[in-house]
Amino acid sequence: MKKLFSFLVLLVAAFVFTACGNKDGKETVDFGMLGPFTGALSQYGEPARKGVALAIEEINKAGGILGKQVVLHAEDDEGDAQKALNAYNKLVDSIDFLIGEITSGNTEVIAAEAQKDGLPMLTPSATAAGITLNRSFVFRVCFLDPDQGVSMANFAADTLKVTKVAVAYDNSDDYSKGVAAAFKNQAEARGLTILFYGGGVVADSADYKALATKIKNSEAQAVFIPIYAGSVATLTKDVRAAGYTLPLLGADGWDGASTILAGEDGKGDVTPLNNSYFSNHYAADDENAKAFVAAYKARYGESPNAFSALGYDAAYIAKAAIEKAGTTDKSAVVQALTTVTYSGVTGEFTYNETGNPVKKIVICEYVNGVVTFKESK
Q: What does the pLDDT look like over 103-153, one tens digit per residue?
């Protein structure tokens, strides 16, 4: 009888210990991730996924979060908003934290759902200004579109010392329009003359020869063109072929253009990108990024881009918030996020009251296809 009593005491004690050590009844911390891992936008989504996965591997090797291993549940939406929503609905009830979306358009769709469901959400790379507005559960790692435009206008005035600029953008794309408008406003505030401001860039066009001729015949001392890497690769070839050799300026969508120009064999001509500068989230040759770059190359056999770095930081920020909260309770994690101070690959920052990071923007330069650090603003 005494043995039976002792056994029952031990059983109850074990139950109490387990309950106290695992209050939510889960053995893991579950991260969800949404993004375009295949398709036309995979050059952004897949590097971000790899960055997140690398961080989680490191976190798990170091003991996990709150003593639990982290599991990544990644869903490919191919850049399609409806597929993103379907993937979100598949994950929402089984995850503690959502990393993603990647592009601004899909992030807007998912952010509305995450806010409604009370799920902590951290987008690595969606830069549209309104994504976190009035959404207390939604945060981002990247800077905002208007910030890029302002920084690049200041760079043109302060560093390049130009007085006449032109702006071309994609009128069908909110990202391109928003950054262009911010650049124009700041450039004019700094006393720069805008020679032309046109929304005639058509994404993924076979050629941009008409625009290239317009740029060459203008008196612009620099041209700001905030578009995505695929279009950048074609456009810069046409602009340089037209004989325009002065600075070309862009935003973070320019990251990856040299890889496209180099081609699968890596032997393509990348020199059209020379004398071009763009706002970005990090530079691989910056001191605080070197360990990450080495680890990423060792893991994947390729160099990371800014989306890789943003994904990597997103996972570590999620870890910091959960550990600061001491729980995976979603409201507690969100409250912890508001007070997190983070220093990572993409900079040192805190969050403001709208879920946006207060951080510096890196200005990068293409030098024979290599993205190099120019300055930070």
A: 999 999 999 999 999 999 999 999 888 999 999 999 999 999 899 999 999
> DSSP 3-state assignment of 264?
coil
Q: Which pair of structure tokens corresponds to residue 295? A: 């680890």
Q: How far is CA 254 from CA 48, 100, 231, 235, in A?
A: 16, 20, 9, 11
CA–CA distance, 236 with 64 (Å, rounded to integer): 45
DSSP labels, 4-46: HHHHHHHHHHHHHHHHHHTTTS-SEEEEEEEE-SSSTTHHHHH
What digits encode the pLDDT tens for the residues 47-62? 999 999 999 999 999 9
Other C-beta atoms lying within 10 Å of the C-beta of residue 335: 15
Which pLDDT value is given to residue 24? 56
DSSP code of 77?
Answer: -
Threshold 0.70, pTM exceeds? yes
Q: Is 20's pLDDT higher than 60?
A: no
- The answer to whether the bond into 101 is cis (omega within 30° of 0) is yes
CB 228 within 8 A of CB 252: no
DSSP SS3 for 263 = coil
CA–CA separation, 276 vs 254, rounded Å? 10
